[in-house]
Structure to design on (193 residues):
């Protein structure tokens, strides 16, 4: 092999090495991206993540004044244990001026009013359980314990829900949905699919 052939061969090998290095770097970036995505997802996933179609929630595990968020059929579901003062506030905010006058409770009739009692867990009215997706676009997860009424706040276009999950301020048309449930023994709440 003369010098010219040797030189061309080295040139080819160098080109292959460069390609290989790029491929490895690309895979590394993809792997890092996937890893970061998984980390982000893990950070955003509520700790009580459950995938079973019926969700069981032990209400004894929720402290007074606390809201816990679960996942029910792919949607966030918030359960709040309201204090006495919060219950009084929820009673006070019920009136003819409500944006959505109806309970939006799957256990009740469509025209039942959005009183605090109709929005609370029957059998343990200090608690409320809502699907905490904003009813405006039905795409934004609301944030609990936020907003002017310390209920739920939609971060997308700022609808404020009160401690009974009712729209008090903003553009959302409906109160947060109350799913079908059954309160079982020992304060175990069954969210029914
Ligand atoms: S999506 Fe919630 S207020 Fe618009």
């Amino acid at each position: 092999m003369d010098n010219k052939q040797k030189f061309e061969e080295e040139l080819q090998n160098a080109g292959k090495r460069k390609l290989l290095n790029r491929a490895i770097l690309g895979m590394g970036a993809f792997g890092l991206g996937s890893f970061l995505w998984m980390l982000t997802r893990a950070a955003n996933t509520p700790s009580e993540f459950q995938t079973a179609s019926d969700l069981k929630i032990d209400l004894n595990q929720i402290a007074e004044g606390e809201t816990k968020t679960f996942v029910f059929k792919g949607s966030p579901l918030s359960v709040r244990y309201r204090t006495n003062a919060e219950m009084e506030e929820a009673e006070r905010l019920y009136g003819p001026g409500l944006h959505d006058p109806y309970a939006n409770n799957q256990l009740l009739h469509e025209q039942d009013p959005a009183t605090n009692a109709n929005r609370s867990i029957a059998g343990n009215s200090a608690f409320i359980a809502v699907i905490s997706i904003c009813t405006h676009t039905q795409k934004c997860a609301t944030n609990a314990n936020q907003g002017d009424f310390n209920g739920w706040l939609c971060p997308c276009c700022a609808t404020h829900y009160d401690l009974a999950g009712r729209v008090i301020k903003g553009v959302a048309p409906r109160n947060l949905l109350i799913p079908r449930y059954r309160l079982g023994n020992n304060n175990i709440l069954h969210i029914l699919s």
Strands lie at 55-58, 67-72, 75-81, 127-131, 143-144, 152-153, 160-161, 167-169, 181-183, 188-191.
